[in-house]
User: Fold these one by one.
Assistant:
Number 1:
Amino acid sequence: MSNILVVLETREGALRPASLEAVGAARTLADARGSSVIAFAPEQCEIDAALLGAAGADEVLVSDAAQHSADGAAAAAAKLATEKSCDVVLLSATVRGRDVTPRIAALLDTGFAADCVAMDASTMIFTRPVYAGKALLQVKVSGSTTVASLRPNFFSPAGREASAEVSSVSCEAGKGLVTAVSAATGGRPDVAEANRVVSGGRGLGSAENWTLLEALADALPGAALGASRAVVDSGWRPHSEQVGQTGKTVAPELYIAVGISGAIQHLAGMNSSKVIVAINKDANAPIFQHASYGIVGDLNEILPVLTEELRKIEQ
Ligand SMILES: Cc1cc2nc3c(=O)[nH]c(=O)nc-3n(C[C@H](O)[C@H](O)[C@H](O)COP(=O)(O)OP(=O)(O)OC[C@H]3O[C@@H](n4cnc5c(N)ncnc54)[C@H](O)[C@@H]3O)c2cc1C
């Protein structure tokens, strides 16, 4: 029986939440087929066997590689997929996952389905949004191995009571090594991983006005800051915070869009958020058509009041 390989992603030695979602998706497939889920960490890291077992992994292999390397991770994953008789390889569609996924497919001489938001375990058909989310494409890989990357926040860890068996595996070092990663988010969570996102647009008027958004984010524990492309292009915020078609895709519990008009390219990155709150002085701004709650007014007046009220609730 063919198994399923999940390539995990770690940051500073810790597993990223999206990897647990990929393991959960693999579990769904494995249960439908009666096979095993093998999780592979391509760099040295601390593994919580109970956490990965609960997410859906039967076995965890941890590489002895000291640093991340996209070509090294892909070569090791392709080798393991063959050795462990895996006909499905899953990754997260993160920035790093997008780098590694096509390399694995090329090494296995197969195709891949990128950035998937759903999959049918019985037909192995994956669904991925295209044209900024305006259409959904159904993809089936015809090669002997199916490689796919899964968009974060669209799949869930299995949540079962089981522990995974952990062992180490020796892997050849890659050619391109990542020697350092520096966080540019000022201690806040990554916008793609946070459960709450406070996002600002051109309506903020200047980089200095971001203090208003920061205060709002501070009043919401665990909140990340996001931005529209107009803001990033103006140099007010870093690209790492950009949400949308050419930025990051987010699907938090709460997305607060402040001074953002709601262009299709921005919506493509946040339209799957559970609750969307829009603050805009233009009652006809397109963002209101997608918002769960809308506040029409000047953000300079609304934000201080909203922040104060949220602080009271959190206290
Ligand atoms: C190929 C391509 C890719 C793109 N990718 C992305 C992407 O990834 N992400 C992205 O965001 N965009 C992207 N864009 C750009 C997108 O089309 C929009 O131009 C951009 O999203 C607009 O940003 P904005 O909403 O901040 O600005 P605007 O559209 O200028 O909207 C500003 C809003 O602020 C409101 N406002 C102004 N002052 C106040 C105030 N005092 N109080 C309250 N509200 C106020 C206005 O009413 C307005 O609705 C892309 C475009 C292209 C062509």
Note: The CA atoms of residues 3 and 35 lie 5 Å apart.
Number 2:
Amino acid sequence: MNPDPYYINSPSNSLEPSLTTQVFDASNSMEFHRTLEAYQPTPLVELKELAAEMGVGKIYIKDESFRFGLKAFKGLGASYAIHKILEKDPSIETFCTATDGNHGRAVAWSANLLGKSARIFVPKDTTYFRIEAIELEGAIVEKFNGNYEETCAYAKIMAEGNNWTLVQDTAEQDYEEIPAHIMAGYFTHFRELEDSLHPASEPEVDIVFLQSGVGSWPAAAAWYYLNRYGEKKPKLVIVEPEEAAGFLASINAGKRTSPSGTYKTAMAGLNCGIPSLSAWSILKNTADAAMAIDDETMEEAVNTLNFPLGEDPKVVSGESGAGGFAGFIALMSDPRFEELKFSLNINEKTRFLFFNTEGDTDPQNFRKIIGEI
Ligand SMILES: Cc1ncc(COP(=O)(O)O)c(C=O)c1O
């Protein structure tokens, strides 16, 4: 276990140029997404009564459970990456990935959309509903008898052996460009906020909570905010399950490392090992804090969003989707985070932004969490 469930960082807010930042600079993901029939910006909601109850300024949630009918944001990354790969080589027929659910469903959906096929590998603990959802997008799914990291290694071998194109969202030394396109695909939902919370002058939010798996999504967010606002970027808090807190372990160790937890968590999308190489190099220089939460806090977050106060809108948030918001709940109520709360200077004016990155992608477990079964 990590010594503390949090880490307060002093980010340099400067990044070395790399292949990843080159891909980001040249990206046009929103323009691509707008060409897709299924494309629509997802809703931004405000929980006014909850903000009053918790004694903070604003609570905003960008609800990605409405993205492309996939109940999660991951289609943004996979579709843009597959589009970029096919731009270079339209003859590719089969795409392959390892996934804990959402990314695989997104790869399957995107491949299908572009007339191609997909082979998807899932770790041994992947639930029936998540596998079925990927199969319904027309992919062949295989369960591998290992955890997420081991399944990634297996998918790589299978892709090489069968001449499939690997669309993995984790960058390694010799595998950087495709993950960078996936991350660039995520910029679309940050740009969707440019006529509301992300105006050009300065952000209208103070703290953004970002739930992290391999770190690609939060790193895309961090790059977006740094690029748009420089030193004026909002504070960024990375939230992970305490049993799979790879970024927290790495920032504590001062180098990219695998977490030492048990990988037992219902937050399947966040149940990853070592952070992606490119994500790590971005996040260590841009994140203001990292924190780890347990499944109980996640369940409280899911319920808070599902059973809102008074006139606040209801948000259907799955286990990983609620991760960032769960970090906020822990911060506001768990005395172990007192120092972190103080360092983030939270007061009655603070404006928070969360991304509900998935809806009820495992409907059965969701119903269990909200007490329906
Ligand atoms: C719902 C959800 N939220 C957040 C994440 C985190 O994204 P990343 O693995 O890029 O850090 C994932 C990853 O699968 C996810 O499925």
Note: The pocket of pyridoxal-5'-phosphate is lined by residues 72, 74, 100, 102-103, 169, 211-218, 269-270, 272, 320-321, 357-358 (CB under 6 Å).
Number 3:
Amino acid sequence: MLAGRVLPLSEEPSVQSSSWSLKPARDLLPKQFQAWQELLENRTGMVLDERRRTFLLTQLNARMRELGLDDYDAYLARVGDGPQGAVEWARLLDRLTVQETRFFRHPASFDFLSEYLQGRLAQGLAKPLQLWSVGCASGDEMYSLAICAAQALQAATLDFSHFGVTGTDISAQALKLASSGEYPAARLNNVPEQVREQYFSAVDGGRYAVKEALRSRCCNIRLNVLELNKAPLHNMDVIFCQNLLIYFRRWRRRDILNRLIERLAPGGIMVIGVGEVTGWQHPDAVPVADDRVLAFMRRKVA
Ligand SMILES: C[S@@+](CC[C@H](N)C(=O)[O-])C[C@H]1O[C@@H](n2cnc3c(N)ncnc32)[C@H](O)[C@@H]1O
């Protein structure tokens, strides 16, 4: 139902004359750097430490150049200025977020998922499976989840359409890519040949598109993980949250996991990136005893 829907953003302003690109980027004053750090962390949870100062400078300058701006403080004021500022903030965010991802990025997590689904489906299926990719970037993880669910249903000789995957992310640009379901051939390098043939079609320009039967089981929603109270997602069977929490402070990682576990159905699983969280405990979360992965099952009702 939500497939292909992402928030509209205003038109890209025209790129300014080349004289801008010749100017070296001015460094940020300590208090300016701190102001940008605070803005980013307050709004997204991401901690931008000193090692990423050059990254921030590069991204700010690239965007300011497009807008014809030369003053960090003026640009900071602009992103904080009402609805127009919110649109500009969304644009900048596309540049400041790390959107690196891959299909089946952590193979052991997907092997674990397939085994879990196989076990679940052996007991029958009371309702369609619901899976969630939190911080889905360009959708590689979302479609990897969809492929695992489709394969598990097929192996259990159940209806292919009995699942849905939701991919959420803060970046509108990432969601647009995810919704398109189109990828350059090189992105499918670690997708087994047989899986590629079954779930992707070759399209123009050496690209591959996720087949409609799979794509139509997936939808995207723009969602800030700091605002999980707004997430219209409950009773999930599977939540994947990988390579997102690493950018956050420890207390915030635990806080987010506390919110996510509430969104699982009893017996559902939450799979985190290995090493992304240590020592997290929750009365409803049962750690999964499998060294290959970091996963928790929501306690079943007694
Ligand atoms: C490195 S990618 C991880 C993609 C995928 N989960 C994986 O493991 O390959 C991190 C994603 O988290 C998103 N992100 C960062 N902060 C976020 C926030 N506060 N709420 C939702 N998504 C966020 C970024 O836009 C980016 O697409």
Note: The longest helix spans residues 107-122.
